[in-house]
Amino acid sequence: MKTFRFYIRLIATFSQKFKGVLVLGVIFGILIFIALSFITNFYKGGRTEKIGLTGRYKTENLPDFILNEIGGGLTKIEADGTPSPNVAKFWETPDKGKTWIFTLFEDIYWQDGKKLVSEDLSYQFTDVSVERPNDYTISFKLKDSYSPFPAVVSQTAFKKGLLGVGDWKAEKLRIVGEYFEELILVKGKNKKIYKFYPTEEKTKNSFILGETDILKNILNPAPFNEWSTARVDSSSNKNQIVTIFFNTESSFFSEKNARQAASYALDKTSFKEDRAISPISPSSWAYNSQVKKYDFDKNRSLELMDEIPDETKNSLPVKLVSTPALLPLAETISSSWKDVGIDNIIQVSSVTPTEYDAFLVIFDIPPDPDQYTLWHSTQAGSNISRYKNPRIDKLLEDGRLNLDTEARKKIYLDFQRFLLEDAPAAFLFHPTWYTISRK
Fold this sequence. Notes:
Structural class: alpha+beta
CATH topology of one domain: Dipeptide-binding Protein, domain 3
CATH superfamily of one domain: Dipeptide-binding Protein, Domain 3
Number of strands: 19
Radius of gyration: 29 Å
Largest sheet: 7 strands, mixed
CATH class of one domain: Alpha Beta
Helix content: 25-40%
Number of helices: 12
């Protein structure tokens, strides 16, 4: 016991005598620790982000924000949908849209350090011949005039190995089957590790299990909106629309009154997201806000149902097919339709079905207002509504041929007005996407 007290007094006396030295030692120790941590982090490679995404992606359909990090195309698309210079500094068409000649910037380099020249650019188009008269000129000769072509070549150009001209370089990629499972991008000492999952549930589990620290493009933020350790940010994508495509060849929705009745039966104000009324983005130079909006009107829906022939009503119930992520919304739609006498059943499909009366899906709006592939009667593979209307066909054809922006605008204003009157689809809202990150 005496020995213990002796050591206590000895330590106290030493501390009192050398107090200043001890304090300075602690301060220097802390500073050295901070400096070593900084140096360690610097040489470890800077910041690393592990990002989870839902979907099955190949190189050509990676999300735009990833493609834009890696590189860019001959043009880029501005917020209003107009193309502007990117790899090409200007372009021209000497024959009203059949030939497009792009002149490249001469000071752009690939991520391998080599200068970008026309021979490097490879676009896979059908019925298009490509000529490269010199290192900084590339020419496309089309079979027919096509005014939206400068928007088409905004798609990102790559060299072999996913090399682009952007700030972020693809360091490593892992593909299972045909689809990306992981993609690692580097920028200096910073790194982004994109991990891809087949369903939103699996993407969320990756965050819970610590496989990822950030989730992008999440439709339903639960349960993270209740976590004190998670940050939830949201944004509305005006270039996408949650849409019901009516099969105009089906027994029930071949009737215009049936399509309009189904549209009026839905209370769009009950959706928290930004309302959509047209297949063209509200930020587009060709957007028409003066179209039939189909605001909720149950009485009008019932009136239209009364005008439908009995033999058409006898074809009920209709089959409403939904993508898995939109199933809760499909159930709401189903209930609203039943309230006005549109009996229905719901099915779920992760791909465009072959048999359906109505298909609920998120529709990606093309950057140019040209929607020929979606609505023209000749487009059997991509015309989801199986829609046939000679007036709409003519407007879409004229919109592709005309090079004058003001003339094209008038064409697409009419296109939207007549399309909405005929109602081959119901445009509901622009989806809200959530980004989840750790605080």
